[in-house]
Amino acid sequence: MPHLPDVVLWSIPAFVLLTVLELVSYRFHPDEDEQGYAVKDTATSLTMGLGSLLFDAGWKIPIVAIYSFLYELTPLRVPVLWWTVPLMLLAQDFFYYWSHRGHHVIRVLWACHVVHHSSRHYNLSTALRQPWTSATSWVFFVPMVLAGVHPAALAFCSSANLVYQFWIHTERIGRLPRPVEYVFNTPSHHRVHHASQGGYLDRNFGGILIVFDRLFGSFAAEAERPVYGLTKNIGTFNPLRVATHEYASIARDVRAATSWGDRLRHLAKGPGWQPAPRTEPTAPAAGPESAAA
Fold first, then answer.
1. CA-CA distance, 180 to 10, in Å (whole number)?
2. Which of 1, 40, 182, 274 has its CA 20 to 30 A from that of 125?
3. Region entry Disordered: which residue ranges (predicted)?
4. How far is CA 107 from the centre of its chain?
5. Are 192 and 227 in contact (CB under 8 A)?
6. Rounded Cα–Cα distance for residues 241 and 48 (Å)
7. What whole-number distance in Å separates Cα of residue 192 and Cα of residue 190?
8. What's the CA gap between 106 and 99, in Å, rounded?
9. How far apart are CA 212 and CA 31, in angstroms?
10. What is the pLDDT of residue 291?
């Protein structure tokens, strides 16, 4: 198949340049309603981004092996042509939607994705705050490999999707023209996704397109100003704790659970799930006979 470039690596200089330009823009055109940049927060985001590059290089080895094995099993083949690449990008964006949604509603997957939502700021450096355990996503894209999409073509589509999402992590861009807002994921839509208010939680999971959110009932338009971060913020800039804090929280809950069912539910239910409090049985009220006795 034709050689496909590593879109993420080629885009790193643009990431750096655009982040610097956005940072400088706050110096010359500050906005008291916008979060802007903070030194410790930005340093943590950059550290998480660099770490993700290193860890992803390791995770790719078993994932590529699994994809290659499955690709050899299927008789189907999708050629890499000028007209098939847009279709593969569309398919990858569809499965990305479900992967992203799954990482919000299944706690063991959320433990990976929570890293990206852990900043209380929203700027281009936030886009670089990536998890170190991203091997949790591969299973969602197995249907594409079984349909005959070469693993290298899937990697290209995934990288293109990730690069697209960089520019939407900003408060410096307001709403775009209505046709763009209706079809594509935009800064306005993604600000909603990163907000911690109740009405904004678990909304706007799209990667490149927002149409899947509209189709599957997870869309919310930006109305009130978003408050960024988690419903319970972690209050640390330590990269190791940022990367692992939810796994540690799951381990504590699993250890404290009183049944295997609750242990499994701590993994598979949503991030806020807790078992119902147990109530002690009450003694029956004393009747006339017992009172007389």
1. 26
2. 182
3. 268-293
4. 12
5. no
6. 11
7. 5
8. 10
9. 33
10. 39
Distance CA 135, CA 53 (A): 12
Output the CA torsion sign for 73, 159, 107, 136. Answer: positive
* Mean pLDDT in consecutive groups of 10 residues from the start of the chain, 293 residues: 74 93 91 87 96 92 96 97 96 98 97 97 96 93 98 96 97 97 98 96 98 98 96 95 97 95 95 80 54 38
Asked if residue 3 lies in contact with residue 91, where contact means CB atoms within 8 angstroms, the answer is: no
Polymer length of the chain: 293
Nearest to 250 by CA among 129, 133, 139: 133
Measure the CA dihedral 45/119/116/265, to 10°. Answer: 140
| Rounded CA separation 194/190 (Å) | 6
What does the buried/exposed string (b/e) look like for 218-250 if buried means 16 or more CB atoms within 10 Å of the residue's CB?
A: bbbebeeebebbeeeebeebebeebbbbbeebb
Residue type, 219: F
- Residue 271 has a CB neighbour count (10 Å cut-off) of 22
Strand partners for 228: 195
Name the token pair of 209: 């397109």
Query: In degrees, to the nearest 5, what angle opens at C-alpha 107 toward C-alphas 169 and 245?
Result: 70
15, 168, 181, 186, 187 from 171: Cα distances, Å: 16, 9, 15, 11, 7
d(CA 163, CA 159): 6
Write the DSSP assignment of 54-122 as a string of letters.
Answer: HHHHHHHHHHHHHHHHHHHH--------TTHHHHHHHHHHHHHHHHHHHHHHSHHHHHHHHHHH--S--
Quick one: CA dihedral 122, 123, 124, 126, positive or negative? negative
